[in-house]
Specification:
Length: 140
């Protein structure tokens, strides 16, 4: 039996986008839950990152289902939403843009906490997540 191809490049495990929609969706649910748990622990900066990942993976699940191919390799939520051709209502588009601006950048900025109110950030995440996954379900 042949060994599976290595997923390492330069000694680092490389993520592949070659996952079924269901895997992306399960990961998205887990990241959303983690974001909420981190807020309870007082870790708002980390919660913002996981909120971003939840929406990113939900968008990738939608893309995978709709286009039947690997989603784009990107952390940019606005770009991913555009690539899915999912037409977000203006209010949710604004929330997506705000989440895009406040999350992943915190990994590198040294900023101790997001400038946005973390409760508002999670509420936006929940609304976006529910809207995207509702459309995911109806797209089947």
């Amino acid at each position: 039996m042949a060994s599976p191809p290595s997923r390492k490049k330069h000694g680092i495990l490389v993520h592949t986008a070659d996952q079924p929609m269901e895997v992306w969706l399960e990961q998205a649910k887990r990241e959303r839950s983690t974001a909420h748990d981190l807020v309870k622990l007082g870790r708002e900066r980390a919660a913002a990152v996981f909120a971003h990942l939840a929406i990113e993976k939900a968008l990738k699940a939608y893309y995978r289902q709709k286009h039947e191919r690997h989603p784009p390799v990107s952390h940019n939520l606005v770009y991913l939403a555009e690539r899915t051709n999912l037409l977000l209502p203006d209010e949710l588009k604004q929330r997506l843009e705000a989440l895009n601006d406040v999350s992943i950048v915190h990994l590198y900025s040294g900023t101790p906490e997001p400038s946005e109110n973390v409760d508002a950030l999670l509420e936006a995440t929940d609304r976006l997540f529910d809207w995207i996954t509702d459309h995911l379900t109806s797209a089947t």
